[in-house]
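**User:**
My hope is that you can spare some time for a protein that puzzles me. This is the protein in question:
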Amino acid sequence: MMSRVKWRVSLLFVLITLSIFFSMIANSDRFMEFGGNGTFTPIGTGISREDRITNLTQRLEVGDHETKLSAAAELGRFGETAADALIERIESNISSSGEVNSYMLLALLETRDSRTETVLSESFKKIQESNEITAEEQAENEISADILQAIEEKDRAMRRNLAISLDRDYNDETNSLEAALRAEEQNSSIYDSFALSEFEPDEPGSETEKLIKALKSDSGSIRIAALMALGERKEAAAIDSITPILTRDYSPVQSSAAYALGEIGDERAVEVLIKQMKDGSDSVRSNSAIALGKIGKETAVPDLIQRLRDNRAVVRSSAALALGKIGSETAREPLIEVLNSGKLIDGRAKDSVNANEDVRKSAILALGEIGGPGVTEVLTDILIDKEERLSVRMAAAAALGNTGDPQAMETLKNVFNDRNTDTNLRNQAFLALGKSKNQEAAELLVEKLGDREFGDSARKALSEMGEVAVDPLIENLKTTDRRARDETALILIEIGDPKAVNPLIEAYQ
């Protein structure tokens, strides 16, 4: 009798378990979807197609790369209904992000809607116009992203040091100013508020006039805030009020003044910056050198070359970056000498300061900008020298990419193809190849689009190569690998070359 009862209880338990299991399956898609950094609308069996499409479109806006590719593919299954929503968003420019629009155009391709060709053609016109403006701006600057990033890192270090100094001198009184100095993105609003805080609301004059007046404040923190605000605003009217501060105030305020003068970029500041680059404290000399690089006046070159022999590594490093930013060929040999004299032989360097990692990286990047006789050979020696620090070798790879020398491209290719080389260095060499605007390099990059280690770098480099990469990318649309096809299509959309429209349409039919 007991065994029969146990059997019935067991059967009932099995039935209940199965009931719960099938209930969970039936309702599984009612759970919240997550993708990237966003939380999305619940999708269940009772939800409308329109709501599903809205949810998937949200994933195009806030998901990570993988989520966006998946959402684009899913939207394609909704055909015309999804196309209506996508076209409305694309044509009304609801998204301010070009990247998001690229994913929307990819999703539209997935729908195979008859309107796709027209929408794609119109969008490509806008993308081309935007890319041409960007290319013109880059051509005017003629400065690589590598050296600009290195200079920005110097500025960040200067701001961090200012924040540390303020915290030491003022404790909690300057918290908001310290936060503004540590922020990655700089704008003048917090600096404005802090600098103007000692004035009454009815203080006469414009904001600029009051900021200039704040430079005479008894409080060093107010003067620093005013200098930062004027620098961010690029107020040329403040030059005559800032230059005396650079020579007379205490070091943190002087550094702020040097930064402000560099941001304003007025040639009237060159003479006083040259003076302080020789006579100021370590931080003032370093920041004055960076400011001279930003202003870009050739007359500063001899004095910057002289600072390559400064007794402090931070000043030599800043002087090297400034010379690279100005791009004077006069600096080529002195910069090569910095690298040669800092090379370790049997554990020792002829000049120990030039063996400093930051000095070497800065001199390398500067030579990549200047280029010319002997540069490729020097940079190649550093790149393949296993005794050099990894970060220095990576800087050499980046700089070789900026030279545009065919010999440098061959070296970079060899480094990338060597599987025994550090992955980070191979990746840097791979990115540097993308700067070459070379058909052969483009083909190599296309081959690596589906690579787990180098796919992200290939995508970025091909997008930046522009027109040179279009033909190899169009050829790659014929791949049977759906993921590789979507990656290829996305890059072609970002480039926006009109001749890619028909191949894209055909690839998704």
Observations:
- The longest strand covers residues 34-35.
- The chain has a mean pLDDT of 88.
- DSSP finds 28 helices and two strands in the chain.
- The first helix runs from residue 2 to 26.
